[in-house]
UniProtKB/TrEMBL annotation:
Pfam families: DUF4130
Superkingdom, natural source: Bacteria
DUF4130 domain: residues covered: 86-252
InterPro entries, alphabetized: DNA_repair_put, DUF4130
UniProt name for this protein: DNA metabolism protein
Length: 255
């Protein structure tokens, strides 16, 4: 009988599912990992709800890093942040393959395996979206001195892009709001960034920008339109370089 482990859609949730599935000793061929919200119950299958456990998730993460290499762990972690109903099971299959290999760090070369191939594709998708997002995030200075940015990514990008901005803006108070997930990445000056959820955004506060910010925005918009040459506009290339879904939160396109 197939045993389906129902995981929370998070990195810790999926890694806990991997731990519980492996520890069940029911045989890898008889185990399937699914996200709780994506599940459709089937006959002749046993369902087990996975309770997310940070300690179990850490053990899986450490095992993957030590036995499969850091590169494999990075690919798997990126895949866990993607939007895909089948990512949990693909991650489980990849870890099974990786731990069975004789040579460390070769699992992502096994692209003939469907699970590994899916993890590789998801990882690449998340990487490209994060790379785009790093270039097009626009912070604005609020009256309270905090730099605020709003994003609406497909993937869960805050764990990837937050270290990037913490490294580049270590002496600033800033926050990035993922409106698709209701999550905040918050960084206080000279401190580590943290993820915060279940907090209501104060619309009045984020709409009150500083006087300096008003001047900078006007100057930037003026520069953006001044350097534009109407005869050389290429909308197809523009859409390729800056997808339309990013533009709502990009200053240059908010006249």
């Amino acid at each position: 009988m197939e045993t389906v482990f129902l995981c929370e859609d998070s990195m810790e949730g999926i890694f806990t599912g991997v731990y519980d599935g492996w520890a069940s000793k029911k045989g890898h061929a008889n185990i399937k990992l699914e996200l709780k919200q994506c599940n459709t119950f089937r006959l002749f299958a046993e369902y087990i709800n996975v309770k997310t456990d940070a300690q179990k998730a850490r053990k899986v993460s450490d095992t993957v890093k030590n036995k499969m290499g850091e590169e494999a762990l990075i690919h798997i972690m990126r895949a866990a942040l993607a939007v895909d109903d089948e990512k949990a099971d693909a991650i489980y299959r990849t870890i099974v393959v990786g731990l069975a290999l004789k040579y460390k760090g070769k699992v992502m070369d096994c692209l003939s395996n469907p699970g590994v191939l899916k993890v590789f594709k998801l990882s690449r998708t998340v990487f490209y979206e994060a790379d785009h997002m790093k270039g097009f995030i626009r912070f604005k200075e609020l009256q309270n001195g905090v730099y605020f940015a709003k994003i609406a990514p497909k993937s869960h990008l805050l764990p990837i892009i937050s270290p990037h901005f913490a490294d580049r803006l270590p002496n600033e108070n800033w926050m990035i709001y993922d409106e698709n997930r209701g999550l905040f990445s918050i960084h206080a000056k000279q401190k580590e960034w943290v993820l915060v959820e279940d907090e209501q955004i104060n619309i009045d506060t984020i709409n009150k920008i500083s006087e300096n910010e008003e001047r900078i925005q006007e100057l930037w918009k003026c520069f953006f339109h001044t350097v534009s040459i109407k005869e050389r506009e290429n909308y197809n290339l523009q859409r390729k370089n800056l997808p339309i879904r990013f533009r709502e939160n990009v200053l240059e396109f908010n006249n």
